[in-house]
Amino acid sequence: IKIEDDRTGLEIQTLRRAILDNLFYIQGKFPEIATKNDFYLALAYTIRDRLLQRWLNTMQTEIKNDVKKVCYLSAEFLVGPHLENNLINLGIAEKVKQAVTESGLNIKELIEAEEEPGLGNGGLGRLAACYMDSLSSLEVPAIGYGIRYEFGIFDQEIKDGWQVEITDKWLQYGNPWEIARPEASVTVNFGGYTEPYTDGHNQFHVRWVPGYVVKGIPYDTPITGYKVNTVNTMRLWRSEACESFDFQRFNVGDYYGAVDDKVNSENITKVLYPNDEQIEGKELRLRQQYFFVSCSLQDMIRIHLLNNPNLDNFHEQWAVQLNDTHPAVAVAELMRLLVDIYEYEWGKAWNIVEKTFAYTNHTLLPEALEKWPIEIFGNLLPRVLEVIYEINRRFLDQVRIKFPNDDGKISTLSIIDESGERYVRMAHLACIGSHHINGVAELHSQLVKDTILHDFYLLWPQKFTNVTNGVTPRRWMVQSNPRLSKLITSKIGDGWIKNLQELKQLERYAEDQTFRQQWREAKQFVKQDLANYIQEKVGITVNPESLFDVQVKRIHEYKRQHLNVLHIITLYKQMKSNPNLDVPPRTFIFGGKAAPGYFMAKRIIKFITAVGDVVNNDGDIGDRLKVIFLPDYNVTFGQRVYPAADLSEQISTAGKEASGTGNMKFSMNGALTIGTLDGANVEIRQEVGEENFFLFGLTTPEVLTLKDQGYVPRRYYHSIPELKGVLDLIASGFFSHGDPELFRSIVDNLLYDDPYLLLADYKSYIECQEKVSQAYKDQENWSKMSILNVARMGKFSSDRSIQDYCNNIWNTQPVSIELKD
Ligand code: 26V
């Protein structure tokens, strides 16, 4: 008899044996004493065993063959749980479920036992994860390089309505998905000084004598593609002390000094900075950035030299994408490596660098544009700063030729900001060192050219382009919404999973009564599920038939969660004064984390929960209005909430949200959008049709004009009685047990400053919400709009985004992976 290999076999019996084997030999447990986590780990190892062959073959093929590789350099990868995603991509979900069930275990419970790696803040990190999925699914050779934070984004608890941050100990029970590769460790310099020297051939060089040296150890995680053999690698770096370094101190008896170094070195990759869209000029953050960038470039060079005699053709083999400016120091670091270490002549090195990098901008908010005080930069990275000065000197010479006698241009374009305290402007370094610069939605890419990078655009218009973001339909439809996915597949086959444009075929079912009924049932099923979850998590009973109105995203004033609350209070007041008001019942659901140091964002959370406390406990209101704040919004919770939404809130001030990607996830799952003409909303509306999208608010040019004219929010307060009523009610202390102070900062900010124009958009928003309520009453038509939304979302697959990058920026081709046995 032939017995299948325990590590690779897919028969039910083999899988069952493999789980027990891993439980025994890796976890060291009998089933009788195993915890849920032990079983989860045993299953995870069983699945990892089944992808290793593909993974190693992919690495080998990519190293051996002369193929161009994409390196996605990102300080954040918010990948979410791996287990179920891998089951789906490997096409073994059903078999594994059967094996697990026959072993007396519950697959759902095991999947839920996985602690998600929260190695990102929000949009930018999650985008990196969707792109990794698409790169593998499209068989594009790729490595995602980043940081293995020991503590990811904090866990959020809500205590007395306020956010409380808890350390995210995601590694505490083990991570079965990573493999450490200490043999590929590298070292990174920090501090110290530089000195000139002349070599044996009378050549002038500069030597960096570091103050301390840190070791970077790579940890690899497999990224499977959907039903292909390609399994790419996400390689995250962990910092450690260099033994050779503290050894000396140890020998002279300075034990504590040696241990100190160890602690300092290991601090670099300890924790993810939890601010998004707000820089903090902390040295540790710069250390993180340089650390992972230097490790990654050294790694690429090592791999390159395995098959190439030198680095002359580096740019033909590697396309390196800078995910925002966090890794922008790579431009200077690659120059340093080429010039100082590999002894390239400057011009030749620069030619390689310029052809290697491309830069994606993810935000226009001035407070998020990275700049480092020269002092901090020069002390930490003295040699890198010298390289930056030289890049800048040569660049400004070019500028002088193009714009003679224009000192204004010199100061606006220079990498060094000299308007006050001197800073290194990371976006400038990224632009100068990149062959392409892109924004993440049509509108945003235009604004990049018109505003923050305008002078670079005048200099190099051909460098600028757009790549509209996308999200992976594997995680955000197939995995998170199996019901809806099966319904779709039953009508149009499963080709849409790989080619999302095929969803177009659903259009003809929009008029089909039976199909609409099934569509509603699929939605109702997940809504019930979410209602149960809400009951369990926050102890509030919601009506599963009510309109689920959802806003989940980071808490930020520009995203205007508080505008949503103004609408809730408006509705509440209307219901109180008119008990017979004919509006469909609504459940407002919020989720999102506030940066720990962001005062207003934290107060907005308290505001939401406080309004909820009043509304939810008002006997006159019953279940016609509920306000829920679900703590700890993350990828796992996203998978639960997007499918259950009827209405998606995308209500940022026009011109502020670069793209948004949650907007896409909602719409793909049949939610209708209420939104402004901002970010990718513009393109979503274009695709789904304006009649299937609830539009409100000022446009970007209107926002700019209004601000130019001198915006006076109080005018709206005085001229819109409803708005006045709402703000007065808040100011009276009605939602704060009579304390007028608690929300004074919010009210005053709106009345006297209102930088995000809530009051200017209030009326339009309320009117639009009334249309939503009216529309929801006609369930047949609502279902039709919902079906059409899904049918027309093809453009927003991250597969399309990655295709765009491959064709227009990276110039890379797919490579299919042959399986050897
Ligand atoms: C800035 C900083 C500053 C230093 C501390 C850590 C940190 C982390 C992130 C950021 C900037 C985040 C920018 C960002 O997430 N932008 C979002 O990118 C999404 C993907 O392109 C896009 O959909 C969102 O609209 C945009 O806000």
Automatic annotation (TrEMBL):
Pfam families from the UniProt entry: Phosphorylase
Cellular component GO terms, alphabetical: cytoplasm
GO biological process: glycogen catabolic process
Enzyme class, spelled out: transferase
Keywords, alphabetical: Carbohydrate metabolism, Glycogen metabolism, Glycosyltransferase, Pyridoxal phosphate, Transferase
UniProt-listed Enzyme Commission number(s): 2.4.1.1
Modified residues (N6-(pyridoxal phosphate)lysine): K665
Keyword Magnesium among record annotations: no
Domain of life according to the entry: Bacteria
InterPro entries in the record: Glycg_phsphrylas, Glyco_trans_35, Pyridoxal_P_attach_site
Cofactor(s) listed: pyridoxal 5'-phosphate
Molecular functions (GO terms): glycogen phosphorylase activity; pyridoxal phosphate binding
Known catalytic reactions: [(1->4)-alpha-D-glucosyl](n) + phosphate = [(1->4)-alpha-D-glucosyl](n-1) + alpha-D-glucose 1-phosphate
PANTHER family per UniProt: GLYCOGEN PHOSPHORYLASE, GLYCOGEN PHOSPHORYLASE, LIVER FORM
Function summary: Allosteric enzyme that catalyzes the rate-limiting step in glycogen catabolism, the phosphorolytic cleavage of glycogen to produce glucose-1-phosphate, and plays a central role in maintaining cellular and organismal glucose homeostasis. Phosphorylase is an important allosteric enzyme in carbohydrate metabolism. Enzymes from different sources differ in their regulatory mechanisms and in their natural substrates. However, all known phosphorylases share catalytic and structural properties.
Homology family: Belongs to the glycogen phosphorylase family.
Protein name: Alpha-1,4 glucan phosphorylase
Lineage: Bacteria, Bacillati, Cyanobacteriota, Cyanophyceae, Oscillatoriophycideae
